[in-house]
């Protein structure tokens, strides 16, 4: 769940990965999707955001995941890596490091956002990401 789409957005580098992603995570019991998005953005980017609207619903059936992505704006121009992140940066759309994004859902989300910026208005998007399961077998004799 990514929560900062004005002209650029914070992208974090989680401590467990060498790649980058948008703030995201699982909902906790008792919170709405928007509340979870707000909380995850705070936890990963120390950023206070105001949710503006839903942006995308992406299903990934192979791994049993659904992403609900929100458009939001920073309440204050302050952000920094949270305890789960190594770095936190803002990127202009043309500077987004697509080659170092961790997850296909974030790649799809950011490309949809850039397309909407080009037409001058956000739309709500629904999509299914059909991943293929690649198995690598190492046989040692």
From TrEMBL:
Xref: InterPro entries: NUDIX_hydrolase-like_dom_sf, NUDIX_hydrolase_CS, NUDIX_hydrolase_dom
One protein family per Pfam: NUDIX
Key word Hydrolase present: yes
Keywords per UniProt: Hydrolase
Coiled coil: none
Gene3D superfamilies assigned to the protein according to its UniProt record, in alphabetical order: Nucleoside Triphosphate Pyrophosphohydrolase
KW Hydrolase (keyword) present: yes
Domain of life: Eukaryota
Ranges of residues in domain Nudix hydrolase: 1-114
Stated name of the protein: Nudix hydrolase domain-containing protein
Organism: Penstemon davidsonii
Lineage: Eukaryota, Viridiplantae, Streptophyta, Embryophyta, Tracheophyta
């Amino acid at each position: 769940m990514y929560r900062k789409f004005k002209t650029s957005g914070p992208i974090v580098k989680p401590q467990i990965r060498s790649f980058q992603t948008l703030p995201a995570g699982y909902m906790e019991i008792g919170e709405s999707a928007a509340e979870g998005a707000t909380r995850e953005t705070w936890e990963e980017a120390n950023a206070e955001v105001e949710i503006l609207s839903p942006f995308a619903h992406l299903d990934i059936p192979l791994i049993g995941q659904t992403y609900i992505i929100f458009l939001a704006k920073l309440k204050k121009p302050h952000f920094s890596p949270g305890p789960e992140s190594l770095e936190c940066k803002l990127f202009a759309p043309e500077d987004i490091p697509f080659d170092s994004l961790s997850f296909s859902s974030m790649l799809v989300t950011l490309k949809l956002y850039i397309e909407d910026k080009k037409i001058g208005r956000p739309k709500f998007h629904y999509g299914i990401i059909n991943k293929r399961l690649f198995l690598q077998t190492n046989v040692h004799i």
